[in-house]
């Protein structure tokens, strides 16, 4: 495809960053745009596997602690999330229950809740409401030191970075540049990819086996770096 046609479809403002990063080489700019899409696809797949693994680990933990319908019960009157500080969490659960209506089943409710919901279970009010036990889903988590506390706040912040990346990809924003600059750089993607792998390992999940045939992130980043 001619660059003029490509630019017309994608839009000149969107392509300007790619052209600048490729020092005016429009052919390379089109290639970089396609590489960014490939990288986004690869990372979104890994995030999807991580999100499912995380929510299932949380669900297994709280099912053992609070019972088979722990989400619905936690948001009901007298439930662990039925407090002023956890009101938003309870509201999200109750909306999910209402939306399912007569088709309510706990597994369907679990599947309906987004990444942000599960992340917020590590926020201080929700973490304390859950009896401060949720870090048990990370049995291989390192011990805290004087310089770094591997506590619920640390996990909450790590999940924020991953969720921000997920949302960036979902909104078709590029992930192959230095943040805020038209400079080709895969550091942002590699850093967040490493966070995901670390959390997999803390959950004692063999991420290499889980992602077999799905994870080509390092290779795509190398192609971008050498473009």
Description:
There is one protein chain. By secondary structure, the protein is mainly α. It has one domain. It is 64% helix and 0% strand. It contains twelve helices and no strands. Helix 2 packs across helix 3 and helix 3 packs antiparallel against helix 12. 28% of the residues are buried.
Tally of individual helices: 12
Give the total of beta strands.
0
| Percent of sequence in beta strands | under 5%
Low-confidence stretches are: none
Count of individual domains: 1
Mean pLDDT: 96
**Head-to-tail CA distance between termini:** 19 Å
Write down the oligomeric state: single chain
> What is the H/E string?
HHHHHHHHHHHH
Report Rg.
Answer: 21 Å
Attribute tags:
single chain; 227 residues; mainly alpha; 64% helix
Helix-strand layout with pairing:
Elements: H1 3-10, H2 12-21, H3 26-66, H4 70-75, H5 87-100, H6 106-112, H7 115-120, H8 124-129, H9 152-170, H10 187-202, H11 207-210, H12 217-225
Helix pairs in contact: 2-3, 3-9, 3-10, 3-12, 9-10
């Amino acid at each position: 495809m001619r660059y003029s046609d490509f630019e017309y479809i994608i839009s000149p403002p969107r392509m300007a960053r790619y052209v600048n990063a490729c020092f005016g080489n429009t052919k390379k700019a089109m290639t970089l745009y396609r590489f960014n899409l490939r990288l986004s696809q690869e990372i979104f797949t890994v995030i999807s596997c991580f999100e499912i693994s995380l929510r299932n680990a949380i669900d297994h933990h709280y099912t053992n602690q609070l019972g088979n319908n722990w989400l619905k019960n936690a948001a009901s009157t007298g439930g662990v999330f039925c407090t002023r500080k956890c009101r938003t969490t309870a509201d999200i659960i109750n909306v999910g229950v209402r939306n399912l209506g007569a088709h309510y089943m706990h597994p369907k409710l679990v599947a309906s809740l987004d990444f942000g919901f599960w992340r917020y279970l590590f926020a201080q009010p929700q973490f304390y409401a859950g009896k401060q036990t949720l870090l048990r889903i990370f049995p291989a988590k390192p011990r805290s030191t004087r310089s770094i506390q591997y506590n619920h706040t640390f996990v909450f912040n790590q999940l924020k970075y991953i969720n921000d990346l997920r949302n960036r990809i979902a909104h078709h924003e590029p992930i192959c540049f230095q943040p805020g600059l038209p400079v080709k750089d895969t550091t942002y993607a590699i850093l967040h990819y490493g966070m995901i792998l670390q959390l997999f390992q803390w959950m004692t999940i063999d991420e290499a086996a889980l992602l077999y045939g799905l994870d080509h992130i390092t290779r795509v980043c190398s192609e971008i770096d050498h473009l």
